[in-house]
Amino acid sequence: MRAHAFDIVVIGAGIAGATAAAHLASEKRVALVEAEDAPGYHTTGRSTALWILNYGPADVRAMTALSRRFFETPPPGFWETPLMSRRPVVTLATAAQEAGFRKLLAEGRGMRELSSAETKERIPALRPGYAVAAAIEDDTFEIDVAALLQGFLRQLRASGGVLALRSRAGRIDRQGGGWHVEVSGGNVFTAPVVVNAAGAWGDEVASLAGVAPLGLQPKRRTALIIDPAPWKVADWPAMSDAVTSWYAKPEARSKLLVSPAEETDMTPHDAAPEDIDVAIAIDRMQQALDIEVRRVEHSWAGLRSFTPDRSLAIGWDPKVEGFFWSVGQGGYGIQTSPAQGRLVAALINEGELAEELSFAALVDPARFSRSPEKSTQAQNAERG
Fold first, then answer.
1. pLDDT-flagged residues of the chain (< 50)
2. Are 42 and 191 within one domain?
3. Which end of the chain is more exposed for a tag (fewer CB within 10 A), N or C?
4. CATH number, position 375
């Protein structure tokens, strides 16, 4: 076996691991180890990310807001092309969803209600009678996920960090005050700190290290591509119903991406779409849009992993020294990634990023190790 010494070993080269490693590498010697042949192979590489301020729980919305500036003006040399492109989001409410829609509209930031005529103008294929109300978020945008991931990896390498692919962690031991991470191929990475950014495999990585799991639950999400011709959809907004039982957005200018927005509990694995979910996606979309589906051009699935309370888990394990969590990104990992990276680096390097650290208690993994009574009280206090 060949041993390689670092200050920090990050496990998992999806967006959570890449942004953590990139931000840490400016001050530490960092190794980013990944089981697959390519970074971002699973959830990150299958994401259809939008930046939506009103999406997710309080901690996610805070990180989303703090990440915006990075997407608008990334550091010089981060990537050659823009990371964002404008794409409004329209929420459609059926009669059964109107009460919840009104609550969403009242509580949301930057949302405004559309008239029936405006809604039809923006979504010409909308079926008459489907939506009793609609709202738009104009200040939303699509994120170039591939450019974002590769930009963080470029930052890692520029700071002297190492990306080790085909390096599945098989044994993680704490020896002599540091961690020994043995990976496939015979290499051993040693460091005082391990960052668990393994996504759906986060609890499995923790178990390898003798750390109690958080209770992460991977959930399958399906997406598919159709040709909506004769409709020209390039300038359409992204759209969903008010309870997000389906969503759709233009893709590659002339195509339409559709999802049933399902959350099917799964074990960690290389997820694949089920025919029933593809059919459900088409059916729900066609209830709203007058679009004939002649064939499905492509379909795929990914795993979105949630903590028990569906908020992020970023911070030190409360019981095992040198073990740091960055998991539970759910469907929010891309749009929050810049702020997540800064928070990871601030907590590990004991920095003073006041904005990120101000809500660190909301995402502290220690909340899952408290007694139920204390945990409920603490979370209520933290969330106001």
1. 373-384
2. yes
3. C
4. 3.50.50.60
